[in-house]
Amino acid sequence: MKLIYSVEDKPKLSQTIVFAFQQMIAIMAATLLVPMLMSSFPNGAGETLYFDPAAALFGAGIGSLVYILFTKKKSPVFLGSSFTFLGAYAAILGQNYGYWGVIIGILFAGLVYVVIAMIIRAVGSRWVNKLMPAVIIGPIVALIGLSLSGTATSWMSTNGGDTYSLLTILVGTVTFLAIVAASVRGGKMIKLIPFVVGIAVGYLLALLLTIIGNVTGIEALRIMNFSSLYDAFHPLTLASFVRVPQFTFVSALKSHTLNTIDGAALSNIAITFVPIAVVELAQHIADHKNLSSIIGRDLITDPGLDNTLLGDGIGSIVGGFFGGAANTTYGESIGCVAITGNASIVTIITAGLGCMILSFFTPFVALINSIPKCVMGGACVALYGFIAVSGLQMLKRVDLGSNKNLLVVSAVFVTGIGGLTLNFGSNPTTGGPLLTITSLATALIMGIITNLVVNEGRLISDDDPDGITAAVANMSEVDVEDLEKKDTK
Predict the structure, then answer these.
(1) Is residue 384 exposed (0-12), middle (13-18) or buried (19+ Cβ within 10 Å)?
(2) What is the model's pLDDT at position 77?
(3) In angstroms, rounded to a whole number, what is the distance separating the alpha carbons of residues 379 and 202?
(4) Is 372 exposed, middle or buried (0-12, 13-18, 19+ CB in 10 A)?
(5) For residues 221 and 469, what is the distance between their CA atoms, to the nearest angstrom?
């Protein structure tokens, strides 16, 4: 696949706004869902705290801008609310540490990335390519997409609820096929905004079915939930149109839980968040390897893994301070770049600014919240599927006829798809394990160990004798001359 817009390219302003909007809607459903889930966790007093989705949207926007600053405008990916820390949030809120506990926890998690970045800056990042060559990182990237696929199909089949419905599957399928048609059959501009087209088609179909359901009284046809729009405009006030998000640090300043956070509490918060952040390092590297293969540049080398980690870590801290949720690089954003062929960093910057600005506009947030989950599920079939396929793409130059490589890939896929996790200790608050190493991280560990065993302890693989991953060798090339010809037409 050839990029239409490279990282440094600057599309026209009108186009950039549309491209940025597409990035925004690609990441919004998940970004807004995290604070909603956090607001359902009871604290130690038996109450629940409110984490504003609009504030999380602002946090994702400003966090992404911080990331872009640290990565020297070379890595076109958006940061959004991370689901990985949901268990940590539940534990911290359950111990009545409140908003301050969440903010401090995100601070600890971000500092883990900062410390690792400083170590890498001192020792270099070449070891990353040697430790995780294509035979390992390819299946890991594929696993990221495959592990998310359950969310896409669940949203399609239940619309985010508990009831199975063929109608919601139909709506999700129509959304997906509209994206496919726009990507393959659309004109030059339409091919750059397939998700805007697909989600709009799915939304209109869901709206039509819901209207028919309301008129005829058929409950199964009522796919859409208008509660977010109703709540925004009832009663009709100035806040129905413009409202300052309920930033987490403001809520924290109004609370009194900081008085309960002593040395022991800080240690408890650190123990809860730090291990999760260390485990997240695997996904950070995999995401940037994947993005590297898409844009045709090795981001681990330039701007460097140290800078991507600093951007991710500090971006997460800043985003969490405002929005109450730790941020992470979003596969949805990477998939959007890959499918549209638009890697323009200006698009990501505009999307970040757009999230910050639109978080103040109540109708916009309400409209996004009204998009049915089955519609987003259909869109995610394309997004998550493309992530999985791009991981397999990295295996093109790996000799799977060799048992050495075949066993490494097998170890990664079986442990990852099988959902093998490593649980340690017991958390008295949640009743779950104190630390869980996710199936993705476990698969990575198994892949590294297997690769070392089959290669007699050497940090290289037979398909890659120089220790340089084949991912970059498979990168897409940007046809600049062809781009210039198109722009002159």
Answers:
(1) buried
(2) 95
(3) 9
(4) buried
(5) 50
Closest CA to 305 of 134, 474, 129, 448: 129
Write the CB contacts of 463 (distance below 8 Å, at least 6 apart in sequence).
133, 134, 135, 397, 398, 399, 402, 405, 470
The answer for residues whose C-beta is within 8 angstroms of residue 100's C-beta and 6 or more apart is 252, 255, 257, 258, 261
Tokens read off for 418:
């099988």
Q: Which residue has the tokens 């596969």?
A: 331
Cα 303 to chain center, whole Å? 20
pTM for this entry: 0.81
Q: Is the pLDDT of residue 484 over 60?
A: no
Chain centroid, CA 394 distance in Å:
20
C-alpha–C-alpha distance, residues 181 and 45, integer Å: 52
- Which residues, in sequence order, are bridge partners of residue 464? 461
Instruction: Tell me the two tokens of residue 269.
Output: 């918060």
Mean pLDDT of the chain: 86
Q: What is the pLDDT of residues 350-359, one digit of tens each?
A: 999 999 999 9
The domain locations on the chain are: 13-477
What pLDDT score does 344 carry?
95
Give a three-class secondary structure readout of the chain.
CCCCECCCCCCCHHHHHHHHHHHHHHHHHHHHHHHHHHCCCECCCCCECCCCHHHHHHHHHHHHHHHHHHCCCCCCCCEEECCCCHHHHHHHHHCCCHHHHHHHHHHHHHHHHHHHHHHHHHHCCHHHHHHCCHHHHHHHHHHHHHHHHHHHHHHHHHCCCCCCCHHHHHHHHHHHHHHHHHHHHCCHHHHHCHHHHHHHHHHHHHHHHHHHHHHHCCHHHCCCCCHHHHHHHCCCCHHHCECCCCCHHHHHHHCCHHHHCCHHHHHHHHHHHHHHHHHHHHHHHHHHHHHHHHHCCCCHHHHHHHHHHHHHHHHHHHHHHHHCCCEEECHHHHHHHHHHCECCHHHHHHHHHHHHHHCCEHHHHHHHHHCCHHHHHHHHHHHHHHHHHHHHHCCCCCCCCCHHHHHHHHHHHHHHHCCCCEEECCCCCCCCCCEEECHHHHHHHHHHHHHHHHCCCCCCECCECCCCCHHHHCCCCCCHHHHHHHHHC
Strands 422-424 and 435-437: antiparallel
